[in-house]
Amino acid sequence: MTAPSLVTLADVREAAAHIKGVAHRTPVLRSRTLDELVGAEVFVKCENFQRIGAFKFRGAYNAASRLSADQVARGIAAYSSGNHAQAVALAARELGTTAVILMPEDTPRSKREATAGYGAEIVTYDRYTGDRVAIGEALATDRGLALIPPYEHPHVIAGQGTAALELIEETGDLDALVVPVGGGGLIAGSATAAKGLRSATRVIGVEPENGDDTKRSLEAGRRISIPVPRTIADGQAADTPGELTFAVNRRLVDGIALVSDEQIRDAMRFAFERMKLVVEPSGASALAALLARRIDRLPRRVGVILSGGNIGAERFTEILGG
């Protein structure tokens, strides 16, 4: 499948219509302090206010609601470190069916409890020794469930792109869009929306320094695998870009910036203290790249996606140093 046929601006717009009234249209915030520190007009898309606390509900619901009646009746499966897990669990509940979610054993407690709270059955595995794709596919096959992967699905990618579509609809043209990168679904959808609306918009992804699989892959022109990253940004602990997402991102993404765990901590602290926002580590990485000036030649009007805020009080305090 080639990138042009994978997902288009029309698909993102269709997804926006499909999730309207179910997913939240999240706010776009401004901060004079942030603008001064960064040297640009920054428009912050707050997906920490999305249902389940992250952008993932957009793609999960867009994909789940398109299943056949028979598939919905049999139930849905997914594998995820946390946010996609909650998104699929809630989507299943909205559709009146059940969900079985494969999660790493070391998933933050708040994400695991929230997933169970939406009614999902949780099956765990060791993320450092197990292949979640293989385990998840086997689980879905054995139980006869429809599998919705976290990013390797056109409807998921299109759904994630609705966050960027909303942002640009509200702010007007952006010179650059800065997006966190894990498996690549959010930036693939965001780049599709942004470039489809204005081809000159720079789309810049942000990864943790210890999880730079997409940066390496884009530089090599092929998918590169790395050891499973160890980073506070658990939602970005991907070891290989998705096949479908990489097909989009290699065409549309202009570059990848890297941030350290300490820079992510600083961004979380800034968001909390100056903007009164609670953001999880993965959700803060794009903001971290701006604050740490990790993006060269930053233009005047910049959009940034805070991708999620799913973090418990204890973990938040622990990360920020007590």
Q: How would you describe this protein?
A:
With 322 residues, the protein is of the alpha/beta class. The chain has 15 helices and ten strands. The strands form two sheets. It has a six-stranded mixed sheet, sandwiched between helices. Helix 6 links the parallel strand 3 and strand 4. Helix 2 packs across helix 9, helix 6 runs parallel beside helix 7 and helix 13 packs across helix 14. The protein is globular, with a radius of gyration of 18 Å.
Features of the shown structure:
6-stranded mixed beta sheet; 4-stranded parallel beta sheet; 10 strands; 15 helices; single chain
Number of strands: 10
The residue fraction in helices comes out at 40-55%
The strand line-up of the biggest sheet is: 1-2-10-7-8-9
Q: In DSSP terms, counting alpha (H) and pi (I) runs of 4 or more, how many helices?
A: 15
Give the overall silhouette. Answer: globular
Mean pLDDT: 94
Helix and strand succession? Answer: HHEHEHHEHEHEHEHEHEHHEHHEH
Low-pLDDT sequence parts = none
- Rg over C-alpha atoms, rounded to the nearest angstrom: 18 Å
Major sheet characteristics: 6 strands, mixed
Amount of beta strand: 5-15%
Structural class: alpha/beta
Task: Give the N-to-C terminal Cα separation.
Answer: 48 Å
